[in-house]
Structures are given as structure tokens and as C-alpha cells.
Amino acid sequence: MCKLIFKLGLIFFWLVFVSFHSIHPLKATSTRLLYSDAEKQYVLEFEVFRDDFQNCLNQEFNSRYNLYTFYNGEEQLSFVSKFFNTYIHFKINNKLIEIKFKKGVNEDDKNSFIFTAPITELSAKGNKKLEVENTMLIKYFPNQSNMVIVNFFSTQKMWLFNKDYISDKIVF
Questions:
Q1: C-alpha span between 83 and 75 (Å, rounded)
Q2: Measured between alpha carbons, how far apart are the two ends of the chain, in Å?
Q3: Residue of 147, 94, 91 lying closest to 119 (CA atoms)
Q4: Phi first, then psi: what are they for 137, rounded to 5°?
Q5: How far apart are CA 144 and CA 66, in angstroms?
Q6: What is the DSSP letter of 57?
Q7: Could you give the CA distance from residue 48 to residue 27 in angstroms, rounded to a whole number?
Q8: Distance (Å, rounded) from C-alpha 46 to C-alpha 38?
Q9: What average pLDDT is seen over the chain?
Q10: Which tens digit of pLDDT belongs to each residue from 106-118?
């Protein structure tokens, strides 16, 4: 009887573990664009669930990368930059800003990516239009949500993009 209860307990634990860690229903990213005094430029911080991002990156580039050991090669870094520049766009007065990958960090079950965004156009207030488009992972997960927070001139704007709402703009 004890062996049966033990086996059932193991099966239950395995089912809970697998369903919680392998298939999480939340599909979301977080993106923050903010000015870094240390960098003297705008920095883009992006957070994503590791398993979602790794699967999409591997599908996109027909590869088999492991994000635990991902930050070693130039080829991998160029894939990350290309992937992000494909799905996240910032434009100021209709000029596309290219984001440059700086570093990645593994934390628990998420990956954080830091990019620099050479946005000199935001150095002064007055009649600037910032357009934001974020379709990150929507191609792969139709229920994906992408939160974007932009900080500039003591103003903060937040958007929650999804498959039906992928872009917006603000004039300041």
C-alpha cells in the first residue's frame, strides 16, 4: 500500500512539475526604453521567458541554441540583434532607430537582454513623434502580450501590445 501511494505521489508530482514548467499559459514580454546616465544614451531592457524565446529563436533561424550558454559567440549575438530588430521598432520623426545588443543575463526562468539605442533625437524637447511597434513572439504565440514602457523627459508611457494592437505613437 505504501509503495502504491509513493508511486502515485511521484506520478502526481511529475505531472504537476511538467505541466507547470514546460507549458506555462502566460505569454508575455517586458520592454523598457530609458535614459542611462552611466551610458549617456538610451538603453532598451527586454525580458522574456527563456523557453518561449529559445523555441522561437530556434524556429526563426532553424537552429538549436541553448540560452543557458548562449552568450559566447558572435554568431549567436548577431541572431539576437537580428531577431529583435525584426520584431521591435522604435521610430523618431519617422526615422527607424537600430538597437544594438549589449549583453544578456540568465535569471531564474527568464532571460534579460540589454540593448543600446543611439537616440540623439531625444536630446531636446519639442515636436518629436515617437512610434513604437512590438510584435515580439506574436508570430509564434497568438495570445502573446508585450508590455512596453518608455521614459523620457520625466514622462512615462506604457503600452500593452498584442496581435490586435501592435503599434502606437506619442508626440512630445
A1: 12
A2: 71
A3: 91
A4: 70, -5
A5: 22
A6: H
A7: 9
A8: 18
A9: 75
A10: 777 777 788 877 7
